[in-house]
Write a structure and sequence with these properties.
Length: 497
């Protein structure tokens, strides 16, 4: 949908159209918040906050209400409900009083910040008492924040695992930002999810083939070029030569790309024979002519990821030899590396890198590509994202409100006006019931009455999300290390982030 065709009045769940008739009489304020609920035994205990700036710029900022859009919504909802429930008068007031800009205030955590689950991430409230119904009207759109937050969080968990093993087996973190390549463009549900998810991955890494994510970072986060790629073969460019000309296909690629890194998928027929007899024999001299800046990256793409990769690296060692780095781990010649992009998720990366190190190999030897496990195998419940009302004002009197289901205590919600602070123990915590001190509040007003008040560049976001020493020792399964999160929080609180 083109930007000019987007109708904000139609961007909500149907039932919310009727909610202006359901709040108590004389209500003047509705205040709600968004969080990733804490859940005992959850895989992830902290989240990366990212994506709000895009949603605000793309859908909420500026003049979003016009007479034409009011009339379109009026007709649509009449057909949809088969009765008059659309608040035409209310929307026309927004148009006349605010020139179609939304009288809403949003306070949020700075993008890129690492926040323990169970804490407020942003709050929403109406700034004009006549528009109390707007706060939760925009819930539908704002809760879609679950997606970039979840991708950015999972991507950073990959980074923790890669950093831990790279540091342990090489002595440094050099090249970490290129260790996980985004292969997910074709596997997502839409161009927009590719853009949001692709940009969320770029908070943590600089390696991607998802062009949509690069464009989002460029257009909405002031980053001219957030990620990089290299020439790479796919099966169609190899098998089009025919099975009997596999060697010619590879040789042609070496001719076409004599300088710069080159990735070649090599499992179209037999990955082991390709490594042993073609790359390691017939084309061995051609491969050895290349340099570290023009490395050949061999890509297996089928079979058990761990077993296949280990067999490939052993064959390459046999054919090209290896050296031992400063911390005692084996490294292939600098002109030769491997990228594993099939069957990759958090568990398989941990398994592969552990097996490699057990066999004496450095993580320097391998890169990873990830598609669906990075951008698609997730949902709103992965981090238990929720948007709830916590405070209202009626007849000029404020009241803290909450839900507390007897059947599921984990769905209990927060009460009153909220703020986020660092407490005296150095931990991030949410202060409820409006008793927080403004000077301690980590939430920043990013949007008010149609205007974006605070923007973040991708460079700033990356700094907020960077890893620290304690991240290298934490498992991504934080429930296995219950004290690890507390240590991490204390480091954050001591001003490192």
């Amino acid at each position: 949908m083109a930007a000019q065709d987007f109708n904000f009045l139609l961007a909500t769940d149907s039932y919310k159209i009727t909610h202006y008739k359901q709040y108590p009489p004389n209500v003047s304020k509705v205040y709600s918040y968004f969080e990733c609920r804490h859940k005992k035994g959850a895989q992830f205990n902290e989240v990366v906050f990212f994506g709000l700036q895009y949603l605000l710029k793309r859908y909420i900022a500026g003049r979003v209400v016009t007479e034409e859009k009011i009339q379109e919504a009026k007709v649509f909802y009449q057909m949809h409900f088969k009765q008059k429930v659309f608040d035409e008068e209310g929307w026309r007031k927004v148009l006349e009083r605010y020139d179609g800009r939304l009288p809403i205030r949003i306070k949020a955590v700075p993008e890129g910040r690492i926040i323990p689950r169970g804490n407020v991430l942003f709050t929403v409230e109406n700034t004009d008492p006549d528009f109390y119904w707007l706060t939760n009207y925009i819930e539908t759109m704002l809760v879609q924040m679950w997606y970039p937050i979840t991708v950015a969080t999972i991507s950073r968990e990959f980074k923790k695992i890669l950093a831990k093993h790279l540091k342990a087996t090489s002595g440094s973190l050099e090249g970490l930002e290129f260790k996980l390549h985004d292969f997910g463009y074709r596997g997502v549900s839409s161009q927009e999810s590719a853009a949001l998810g692709g940009a969320a991955h770029l908070v943590n890494f600089c390696s991607t083939d998802t062009v949509a994510g690069l464009l989002m970072a460029q257009r909405y986060y002031n980053c001219p070029m957030a990620g990089f790629s290299i020439p790479a073969a796919e099966h169609s460019t190899i098998i089009s030569w025919g099975r009997n000309r596999e060697k010619e296909a590879y040789e042609y690629l070496l001719d076409q790309f004599p300088t710069g890194p080159l990735a070649v998928v090599s499992d179209s027929y037999d990955i082991f024979k390709a490594c042993k007899h073609i790359w390691g024999d017939k084309l061995k001299e051609r491969v050895m002519e290349r340099s570290e800046d023009s490395m050949l990256v061999i890509r297996p793409d089928s079979g058990d990821p761990t077993e296949t990769l280990l067999e490939v690296i052993k064959i390459l060692e046999e054919r090209f030899s290896c050296s031992v780095n400063s911390v005692g781990y084996k490294v292939l010649p600098s002109y030769l590396r491997i990228i594993q992009g099939d069957g990759i998720d958090l568990c398989s990366v941990e398994k592969i890198l552990k097996k490699l190190s057990d066999e004496g190999w450095s993580a320097e030897n391998v890169f990873f590509g990830c598609g669906s496990a990075l951008l698609q195998k997730l949902n709103r419940d992965t981090l238990n994202c929720a948007f709830k009302c916590s405070y209202v004002e009626t007849n000029g009197k404020g009241m803290d409100v909450y839900k507390q289901p007897v059947t599921d205590p984990s769905k209990g919600s927060k009460r009153g006006r909220l703020s986020l602070r660092r407490n005296s123990d150095g931990l991030i915590e949410t202060v409820e019931r409006g008793v927080g001190k403004p000077e301690e509040d980590m939430l920043v007003t990013v949007f008010e009455n149609g205007t974006i008040l605070q923007e973040y560049s991708l460079d700033e976001i990356r700094k907020n999300a960077r890893l620290w020493e304690e991240d290298l020792s934490l498992s991504q399964h934080n429930q296995d290390h219950p004290t690890g999160l507390e240590i991490h929080q204390k480091h954050i609180m001591n001003g490192v982030h």
